[in-house]
TrEMBL record:
Domain of life: Bacteria
Name of the protein in its database record: RNA polymerase sigma-54 factor
GO biological process, one term: DNA-templated transcription initiation
A Gene Ontology term for the protein's cellular component: DNA-directed RNA polymerase complex
Organism annotation: Agromyces luteolus
Keywords assigned by UniProt, alphabetized: DNA-binding, DNA-directed RNA polymerase, Nucleotidyltransferase, Sigma factor, Transcription, Transcription regulation, Transferase
Domain RNA polymerase sigma factor 54 DNA-binding: 307-445
Family per similarity comment: Belongs to the sigma-54 factor family.
Length: 446
């Protein structure tokens, strides 16, 4: 719209129709007309999109990993009387969150592997700890082990002296898996971070983030955390990567990977040779429910309930938006990386995040947020980080490695000619690049 000496009129029907189409395209945003003063003391109307509830919710949990999502939900349930979290578990076959015995994905999956046999991890833990702890603590040890849930957590301590329980928990953590007997999923992350720091494997900032700054980490407020802790933003980002890579909200118990952190995406192939299907857990699958409003008879009661209801709606919108975008990216990967999902690294295709972003009509940074910290499960049982679906052609690296193994004395040119003859055309420079990644040092024959 041009600038004139007097206010422009917006009554034209064609202009209004175009504005309506623009507003429809900004789903989830608040659309308003703002009058701006022009240089000739006139007013120029301009269409602005201000983020509404759906957009803000979308941004809130989109980059959250399993650890951060669980922490956000736990905080919300603790603060909001209208929210509850019913008992749930990781599917014993694929690891997807579910409130049933098995998830919806496994009901239609044709798995190429058999789930690992159930292991009596409580019996093994009790036997190993009994050999290390004094015999006088054996009764308390039995109570503590019995109080552990299916994830190795102890949300409710047993009815025993607190000092004796503390001694037993310390003994369990000395011989058991990291995070055993933690009070909650968030506390499990804190226990694991403290163990890493105590062993000297990571800097103390990792434990400090786990103890005090998980909420800010979930919101990606790295600059604020750096200022509050007296460190650099780069150090905070490094500590966040350590938390994501080396801690889990569940204890890694014997009996299969399904007892570790829940899987974010599960790929199945319901019909042999047919298309792949991506499954993503929703809010109901992680046990998040809203308590019905009971105190709505009076004006005071409605005023008290209103902010809690609004906060609950925001949380559900955030979880739903995260799941929706994760589903869209996973569906795109099921088509573009079918070979990688079914056949492994040799089937990996070159894929950039910009390509997926263009197909979904979103910004590449949105795709980056979606894949951060997420884990997928393939039909053959492989657990693959979602970020591994992007980047250079892994299959080329695999073919070069196999050719090197079969022809250890061949030069780069000879390997390139060999692969080209068998139907894998490749340049000599490409062979040289991947040889450097596969062999150290590379063959001197060039």
């Amino acid at each position: 719209m041009g600038v004139t000496g007097r206010p422009r009129r917006l009554a034209d029907a064609g202009v209004l129709r175009r504005l309506e189409r623009c507003a429809h395209g900004l789903a989830g945003s608040s659309v308003c007309l703002v009058e701006r003063s022009g240089p000739a003391l006139g007013l120029t109307p301009r269409l602005e999109a201000r983020p509404g509830l759906r957009i803000l919710s979308f941004l809130a949990l989109l980059p959250a990993s399993a650890v951060e999502l669980d922490a956000a939900i736990d905080r919300a349930v603790a603060d909001n009387p209208l929210l509850e979290r019913v008992p749930w578990r990781s599917c014993p076959t694929c690891g997807l969150a579910t409130v049933a015995d098995r998830c919806a994905a496994c009901a239609t999956a044709h798995w190429d592997f058999e789930p690992e046999a159930t292991v009596d991890w409580r019996g093994d833990l009790l036997r190993d700890a009994a050999a290390e702890l004094p015999a006088t603590l054996r009764p308390v040890l039995e109570l503590v082990v019995a109080a552990l849930d299916d994830h190795g957590l102890m949300p409710v301590p047993p009815d025993a002296p607190a000092d004796a329980v503390a001694l037993v928990v310390a003994g369990l953590r000395a011989i058991g898996p990291p995070g055993i007997a933690a009070r909650s999923r968030v506390d499990c992350v804190r226990v694991q971070a403290a163990a890493l720091v105590a062993d000297g494997e990571v800097p103390p900032i990792v434990q400090e983030l786990a103890d005090r700054w998980l909420a800010e980490v979930a919101d990606e407020r790295y600059a604020d955390v750096a200022a509050a802790t007296g460190t650099t933003e780069a150090a905070v980002r490094g500590a966040v990567e350590v938390l994501r890579a080396r801690t889990r909200p569940y204890v890694a118990l014997a009996g299969g990977g399904a007892r570790s952190s829940p899987t974010d995406v599960v790929f199945t192939q319901p019909e042999g040779g047919g298309p792949l299907v991506a499954h993503v857990a929703d809010a109901a699958a992680v046990g998040l429910v809203v308590v019905p409003d009971l105190l709505v008879q009076t004006l005071e009661a409605r005023a008290w309930v209103a902010p809690h209801r609004e906060a609950a709606q925001r949380l559900f919108a955030a979880v739903a938006a995260r799941g929706h975008m994760l589903q869209r990216v996973a569906d795109e990967l099921a088509v573009r990386q079918r070979g990688f999902i079914l056949d492994g690294p040799q089937g990996h295709a070159h894929l950039r995040r910009q390509e997926v972003a263009a197909a979904l009509e979103v910004h590449p940074s949105t795709v980056g947020r979606v894949v951060t910290g997420k884990v997928t499960r393939c039909p053959d049982g492989r657990q693959v980080p979602m970020a591994a679906y992007f980047g250079a052609v892994t299959s080329t690296r695999v073919r070069v490695a196999m050719a090197l193994e079969q022809n250890p004395g061949a030069s780069d040119r000879e390997l390139a000619e060999l692969l080209t003859r068998v139907g894998d055309p490749i340049a000599r420079r490409t062979v040289a690049k991947y040889r450097a990644l596969v062999t150290k040092p590379a063959s001197p024959m060039r």
